[in-house]
Design goal:
By secondary structure, the protein is mainly alpha-helical. It folds into 2 domains: 8-31 and 48-82, no CATH class; 86-185, ERV/ALR sulfhydryl oxidase domain (Four Helix Bundle (Hemerythrin (Met), subunit A), Up-down Bundle), CATH 1.20.120. The protein has 8 helices and no strands. α5 packs antiparallel against α6. The longest helix is centred in the N-terminal third of the chain and has 25 residues, at 3-27. The relative contact order is 0.10. The structure holds flavin-adenine dinucleotide. The site of flavin-adenine dinucleotide (FAD) has 24 residues, from α4, α6 and α7.
């Protein structure tokens, strides 16, 4: 076996070991630890799609992001697979916070209605059903604040923090300076947004 085929065989073995480790890891996990206690625990059939599959990521975070699991996760990201819950979540928050960052300072009534409807539709159709059901409840408790860019950005930040808290993730500061630095125009030269 030459050097190239030997290293290819090695990488196949690593991929197979990583896949086996993920399967074993998931099988041994408690079911859906991020579902609120007041909700009936859904059966697997309630959401048999990758968008609901965030258990491995959640437990990985809880266990201190063990390096081995990060390697497994890396392998999953390398392949072009349908998004699991964390991947979908990151992309969705990116879209939502970016929309809020560029929302008008003084939106028209029509624009406000469009934003309220957009968030309602997201809460209704978000493909991670556990996430959607909690989000719908939170939006009912504290309806979308779409009267200005600031109101929307802060409202969204607070909603995101509700989920962060539930997952044991860091709470993000919801002041406009920090939000704009993250989602609109960063002072970090690496962000290359001088054109703004
Ligand atoms: C509507 C919605 C509901 C969700 N509900 C659930 C759920 O019930 N259970 C579940 O397991 N997952 C849920 N998710 C996914 C979850 O929120 C995360 O997206 C996922 O766990 C990946 O987390 P992450 O650490 O990559 O960062 P994310 O939480 O995705 O955040 C991405 C980036 O946003 C920035 N950020 C973080 N917090 C804030 C904030 N408050 N305001 C502004 N910027 C911020 C940070 O720079 C961070 O790196 C939900 C996602 C969405 C969009």
């Amino acid at each position: 076996m030459n050097k190239t085929s030997s290293s290819m065989a090695k990488s196949d073995e690593t991929a197979a070991a990583a896949a086996a480790a993920t399967t074993t890891f998931k099988r041994n996990l408690p079911k859906m630890p991020f579902v609120r206690k007041s909700q009936p625990i859904p059966t697997v059939d309630d959401c048999d799609r990758p968008a609901c599959d965030g258990v491995a990521d959640f437990m990985t975070a809880a266990m201190g992001r063990i390096q081995h699991q990060n390697q497994v996760k890396q392998k999953i990201y390398e392949a072009e697979c349908p998004p699991n819950s964390p991947q979908l979540g990151r992309s969705s928050w990116t879209l939502l916070h970016s929309m809020a960052a560029w929302y008008p300072e003084n939106p028209s009534t029509e624009e406000q209605n469009m934003m309220v409807n957009f968030v309602s539709a997201l809460a209704r159709f978000y493909p991670c059903t556990w996430c959607a059901s909690d989000f719908q409840e939170k939006v009912q408790e504290k309806p979308v604040q779409a009267t200005s860019r600031k109101d929307l950005s802060v409202w969204l930040c607070e909603q995101h923090n509700v989920v962060n808290e539930k997952l044991g993730a860091e709470i993000f500061p919801c002041d406009m300076k920090t939000l704009d630095e993250r989602w609109r125009k960063s002072g970090n030269p690496q962000c290359n947004n001088d054109h703004l």
